[in-house]
Amino acid sequence: MKERMVLISAIILTLIVELILMVLVYNKVGSERIPSQIVRLTIQLILITMILTRKSNVALFLLTTYHIVSSLFGLYSKGSTELLGQILIGFHFIIGIIIYFHDWIENKIGLKNIE
């Protein structure tokens, strides 16, 4: 059960952050951005399901790309000067790197091949 712990932890953290962001955006802007956020969450859930059930490297790459591109778009958004915007840019970039290199990280910290 300890297989892919780094990847699963990163995915859980991603889902928690996405749900918190949905609530924060709803409280600040209202329901006008909910449809786009639901689409983003749905795409992530599809990719996550493919990663966890089929161990799809394509889905893993696409999820990583989603996070890296989100961080790059965040750099040029008008909210990037606020602290929360900067934190989200960093979060997306770091989570993208962790998801992509989860095997290497698990090997380095000794989580690989533990039964």
UniProtKB/TrEMBL annotation:
User: What keyword terms does UniProt attach to this protein?
Assistant: Membrane, Transmembrane, Transmembrane helix
Task: Give me the segments passing through the membrane.
Answer: 6-26, 38-53, 83-102
State the protein's name.
Uncharacterized protein
**Organism annotation:** Flavobacterium sediminilitoris
Name the lineage: Bacteria, Pseudomonadati, Bacteroidota, Flavobacteriia, Flavobacteriales
